[in-house]
Design goal:
The complex is a heterodimer of chains A (about 475) and B (about 200). Chain A has 18 helices and 17 strands. Chain A is of the alpha/beta class and about 475 residues long. In chain A, strands 4-3-2-7-8-9 form a 6-stranded mixed beta sheet, sandwiched between helices. A 5-stranded parallel beta sheet of chain A has the order 15-14-13-10-16. In chain A, helix 2 runs parallel beside helix 3 and helix 10 packs antiparallel against helix 17. The longest helix of chain A has 29 residues. With about 200 residues, chain B is an alpha+beta fold. Chain B has 8 helices and 6 strands. In chain B, a hairpin with a 4-residue loop joins strand 5 and strand 6. In chain B, helix 3 packs across helix 4. Classes of the chains: A alpha/beta (about 475), B alpha+beta (about 200). Chains A and B meet through strand 6, helix 7 and helix 12 of A and strand 1, helix 2, helix 6 and helix 8 of B. The complex binds iron/sulfur cluster (SF4) (2 copies). One iron/sulfur cluster binds next to helix 1 of chain B.
């Protein structure tokens, strides 16, 4: 007997996706779909504060408790403060928990200091109005008294002198006396950051100009790139403004707690360990899937759609150990993408292929605003709905996406084609369902069968290796949720 | 290659003259024109590469992207000496067949060809190849590395937010940084990038 699927994360009205009314059927409504609770696959998952019966009040009280331990004395009377946020946080659990953490930080700072102004500055990925949409949706502009703004990597910049020479930050991020780094610990782009300085990354990304972000993705190499954020964070300029950091600590099942510290590197160590511990198993479990059809069904661009807290880009690279720093190139990073010739042959033989277990991708609902042609080039892709195809055809980052993808009228037609051409009945849905994974019956059986072995391997073999590679004390494992 | 299907159009009624569009445009196609009584923003359709930057940043939502007669932007690599193309790519530390723009599928050889054809500034390279007209982020340094490798001196338009400057590559990271932060594996990554640059042109 298989349980019912979990409700997928709702669609979201956005200029970057088709109108929700056009998403006529979700993957979870297909026949033969069930859900596997995360707790069944990975029994030692930490308990979560959200979603929980305590609702958003839990986020507020955990944030207040975490901030109680933080020194705010540097924010003296009359000073201005920018709370720096990023779009990622708003993609978790509907976005409200992250918004509530931001509101709480504002309230506590206003209460404990005599700051003249506490503002919100929300950076983003490649969709230049995305955080404006979140600010509006969560009424953050009102909450911040008209002082909440999105910021894009093409906005006015400011040179920052670093140990890597001059890099460029966003002027608006740093236009206050002090900054508070308000982020999250979700592993998310492990293919890029490799769980190295995960907590520092926004200094080289969502708070940075395009020159800096291009340095990360083009100039330094797949692992060395992670030094960009550290170079900026350690610059005298940023150090003179940094007050503290507050992080929503995530697990595949939801928000675990809030961590805050004046020492970003202390949070960095904790989130590095916690991320490997809580996400290592689920990502490796994805790597144990032998074949499947993937359904993209979440309000985010193609690589960022979630299944049990893991993004599709991680599934694309799950055929290698993404946490193992001895693997220089994941199957998908922006370095790897550039290393293929036009005909698809790699420039050097040691480029790892895209996860061959993904036999087809049914793109039921995913946004534009991220260059996604690589995914359609490397895996047979069927896009549902003419309107969605048109959206991609207009998007300056995806002009070639539909050249490599097929078009189906509706989800049922796309699935029928995918079943017939791949010969697999295993289906994995990236739909942001909370607390578990929506999959086909056959994939549920496989996951249940292989999970104990994967868990044991991660605990006994991989975690100690990952920690040693990062010079992190294994004792921290027991101290971190 | 970039096929331009849409271009920017300003609703002058909504425009407050803040100049944001002018400042974020990678090819300087948007310009605020002062008049005796007021101002208006002009978008030069012969320059606009349909990147959406201005549409996405105009604080008044005064810019729309409207369909235009589609046209292609690319440089024909076969018109230039491939030996020179190869040399310039390797000097900029790219493989000639390496992808340099995810959005337009432009390869390094095309940037080199465009420079050999006379493109002598970042905006000219965008106009000649379409690079930098998609996400507007990731190929930024590639463009500047190519211009530097070709010995091209260029100047930023006054007031523009774009093209702030070239930044460091792996080949230039100071030894003391690499030593102090060995965990970032600078040398091992550089070894891969060197092998890419030196890989044969034909498979
Ligand atoms: S960004 Fe918008 S409001 Fe500002 S000058 Fe351009 S069109 Fe006018
Ligand atoms: S769409 Fe891009 S190229 Fe065209 S005017 Fe706007 S910023 Fe300039």
């Amino acid at each position: 007997m298989y349980s019912k699927p979990l409700p997928p994360a709702p669609t979201r009205k956005s200029q970057y996706g088709v109108d929700p009314s056009l998403v006529q059927k979700r993957g979870a409504e297909l026949s033969n779909i069930t859900h596997v609770p995360l707790s069944e696959l990975i029994p030692d998952q930490p308990s979560v504060i959200y979603p929980s019966a305590r609702g958003l009040a839990a986020v507020r009280s955990e944030t207040e408790a975490a901030l109680a331990k933080v020194d705010m004395s540097m924010i003296s009377e009359g000073k201005t403060v920018n709370i720096l946020a990023s779009h990622h946080g708003f993609t978790f659990l509907g976005g409200e928990p992250y918004a509530e953490m931001l509101r709480t930080i504002k309230d506590v700072v206003a209460q404990r200091t005599k700051a003249k102004e506490v503002r919100l500055r929300a950076g983003l990925g490649m969709r230049f109005r995305e955080t404006e949409e979140y600010i509006k949706a969560f009424k953050l502009d009102e909450y911040f008294n008209g002082k909440a703004q999105g910021m894009a990597p093409i906005d006015a910049g400011i040179p920052i002198e670093t140990s890597l020479g001059t890099l460029y930050g966003l002027k608006r991020a740093y236009d206050a006396d002090f900054i508070i780094h308000a982020h999250n610990s979700d592993v998310r782009e492990v293919h890029f950051h490799r769980q190295v300085d995960r907590a520092v990354k926004p200094f080289g990304m969502s708070y940075a100009r395009c020159e800096t972000r291009s340095t990360y993705h083009m100039n330094l190499g797949p692992r060395a790139a992670n030094f960009v954020a550290r170079a900026i964070f350690e610059s005298p300029f940023v150090q003179s403004k940094f007050a503290f950091a507050a992080f929503m600590i995530m697990s595949p099942a939801g928000a675990v707690t809030v961590d805050a510290d004046n020492d970003l590197y202390a949070i960095n160590d904790r989130t590095t360990v916690g991320g490997m511990k809580n996400y290592g198993k689920i990502i490796h479990l994805f790597g144990a899937v032998d074949d499947c059809i993937v359904i993209l069904d979440f309000p985010c661009p193609v690589p960022y759609v979630f299944a049990s807290g893991v993004i599709y880009a991680n599934m694309v690279g799950a055929n290698i150990d993404l946490f193992d720093l001895d693997n220089p190139l994941p199957p998908y990073t922006w370095y790897t993408e550039t290393y293929y010739r036009e005909g698809g042959q790699p420039l050097i033989p040691d480029i790892p292929p895209v996860n061959p277990a993904i036999k087809a991708v049914v793109h039921n609902y995913a946004w534009v605003g991220y260059p996604a042609v690589f995914f359609a080039e490397h895996t047979p892709t069927i896009v549902v709905g003419q309107e969605q195809a048109e959206l991609f055809n207009r998007d300056p980052m995806n002009l070639n996406y539909m050249k490599h993808a097929l078009l189906a009228d509706n989800l049922d037609a796309a699935m029928a084609f995918a079943y017939r051409t791949t010969g697999t009945d295993k289906v994995m849905i990236f739909d942001g369902a909370s607390g578990g994974l929506n999959v086909s019956h056959s994939l549920a059986d496989l996951l249940r069968r292989v999970a104990p072995g994967v868990n044991e391997k991660v605990d006994k073999v991989l975690l100690p290796k990952w920690l040693a590679q990062r010079d992190i004390d294994v004792q921290l494992l027991d101290q971190v949720a | 290659m970039k096929t331009v299907k849409v271009q920017a159009k300003v609703n002058q009624e909504l425009c407050t003259g803040c100049r944001t569009c002018e400042r974020v445009c990678p090819v300087y196609a948007a310009e605020l024109v002062k008049e005796d009584k007021g101002f208006h923003v002009e978008i030069d359709p012969s320059l606009c590469v349909g990147c959406w930057n201005c549409e996405q940043r105009c604080p008044e939502h005064a810019i729309a992207m409207v369909a235009c007669e589609p046209f292609d932007i690319s440089t024909d690599v076969s018109l230039y000496d491939y030996g020179q193309i190869k040399e310039l790519c390797r000097k900029a530390r790219f493989h000639p067949k390496q992808l340099v723009c995810y959005c337009t599928a432009t390869r390094a050889e095309e940037l080199a060809a465009a420079i050999l054809g006379g493109a002598a500034s970042p905006e000219a390279l965008v106009r000649a190849t379409g690079v930098g007209s998609g996400c507007g982020i990731e190929c930024n340094q590639t463009i500047l590395r190519f211009l530097e490798a070709a010995g091209v001196a260029w100047e930023r338009k006054k007031g523009s937010y774009q093209w702030m400057g070239r930044t460091m590559t792996n080949w230039e990271v100071p030894a003391e940084v690499k030593q102090k932060y060995a965990g970032f594996r600078f040398d091992s990554d550089r070894e891969i990038m060197d092998r890419i640059v030196q890989a044969p042109v034909e498979p």
